[in-house]
Amino acid sequence: MYNCKILLAEDDEIMRITLSDRLRKNGWLVDEACDGREALTLLKKNSYNLLISDIRMPHIGGEDLLAEVLLHAPSTDVIFMTAYGSVEDAVQCLKKGAADYLLKPFDMDDLVIRVKRLIENQAIKVRCASLEQCCRQSQKPLIGSSPPIRALLHLIAQVAPSDATVLITGESGTGKELVASAIHYSSPRAQGPFVRVNCAAIPEGLMESELFGHEKGAFTGADTRKIGRFEMATNGTILLDEIGELPLHLQAKLLRVLQEREIERVGGGSTIRIDVRVLCATAKKLLTEVREGRFREDLYYRLQVIPIAVPPLRERKEDIPELCDLFFKEFDKSHSRTQTLSPAALKILMAYDYPGNVRELRNIIERVTVLNPSTVVEPWLLPADLAKGSHENEDHGPLPMKLADAIAAAERSCIMRALEQTGGKKSEAAQLLGICRKNLWEKMKTHRIED
Question: What is the pLDDT of residues 392-446, one digit of tens each?
Fold first, then answer.
């Protein structure tokens, strides 16, 4: 059950003790208030999932209490308890934002059922918020059957069932975020939220509030209480991407979070217990950052519980054909056709070293699917620097033929392919090649291509 903290406001002492005991039997944390003023003081000081209150309380109650809750603790749901004579007041409170009401006297089991339903709804809202955050990055598999990828998948399978902190390292574009996603969705926390935080993309002045949240009035512009990413990830996983960009003063606070499993909102005076698995990723050499004083040594070793190094694409080139097939399927949907690589084009792709790794390969495939008028990707459709890079790795012997002969051979091959695709229909082949039918006929005669 979702970790829950409840504030119970009831001026009848016997009723308050009875309700409090029953709620605590379900494992929920319960604070008590004997009047509306005390309830409001506790709401401003602490964070609660639910407020259960008699609708008519001393000092402040009903709609006035609800208005204060909505102002100071908008994420706290309110259940009012009401006698028969004040049902109309309870209905008005429902219209203005209360979650539910109970008519006294009520069955304790009914109260427990309603509390459980609201807690489950809150968990769903948190999960939806995390899904909205990463909806453009849906869960994708790690593609490949090379030895480095098989070793990586085996390590993920070993790591996933635990709650240990994992540090994922690798060059930019290798798929560190996919590794983190695979760990989360293979773990017992798979049904919980998976919250991603890019430490390099958040301004330093907002980072603490983004991670840990803030209280109303904590700084200029903090008009309401805000839940941080760590609280959003309760019962799930948080990925701190580009952890090497985290400012030094926040590194100390992160270290405390990892050790104590509790956070403090900016401007808050109380600690909040969290149940979150922490994954970190970086393209930086953190040990070098430690030596140069830009990263805390104690935090580095705290993150290094389980290190996972993601191999660059140049070390697993056997996976390039599989990756190309995956990307073609992804991009062909928008072009309503199926494309493939010619053997020559695949040879060039296999020879390239990909400083941008899998992300660079994906961009190359996206480019050729847009520019290719045919269903087969030929070498001349690939970026020029790719062919240059592959030729630089070749043995520079004598040229196999003169330039004019090479151009003629390429032109003949292109014409033959166009004719094959159009079933020998010259008009369609000429249109595909971007020339007139007469020009095609002349070239066929020159290259001795029969009808």
Answer: 444 444 555 567 777 777 788 788 878 878 888 888 888 888 888 888 888 888 8
Which three-class secondary structure string do you get for the chain? Answer: CCCCEEEEECCCHHHHHHHHHHHHHCCCEEEEECCHHHHHHHHHHCCCCEEEEECCCCCCCHHHHHHHHHHHCCCCEEEEEECHHHHHHHHHHHHCCCCEEEECCCCHHHHHHHHHHHHHHHHHHHHHHHHHHCCCCCCCCCCCCCHHHHHHHHHHHHHCCCCCCEEEECCCCCCHHHHHHHHHHCCCCCCCCEEEEECCCCCHHHHHHHHHCECCCCCCCCCCCECCHHHHCCCCEEEEECHHHCCHHHHHHHHHHHHHCEECCECCCCCEECCCEEEEEECCCHHHHHHCCCCCHHHHHHHCCEEEECCCHHHCHHHHHHHHHHHHHHHHCCCCCCCEECHHHHHHHHHCCCCCHHHHHHHHHHHHHHHCCCCEECHHHCCHHHHHHHHHCCCCCCCCCCHHHHHHHHHHHHHHHHHHHCCCCHHHHHHHHCCCHHHHHHHHHHCCCCC
**pTM of the predicted model as reported, rounded to 2 decimal places:** 0.64
CATH of 5-130, one of 3.30.980.10, 3.30.420.60, 3.40.50.2300, 1.20.1440.230: 3.40.50.2300
Is the domain 398-451 a CATH 1.10.10.60 member? yes
CATH code of domain 316-396 = 1.10.8.60
| Per-residue model confidence as pLDDT tens digits over 101-160 | 888 888 899 999 999 999 888 877 776 665 555 544 445 678 888 999 999 999 999 999
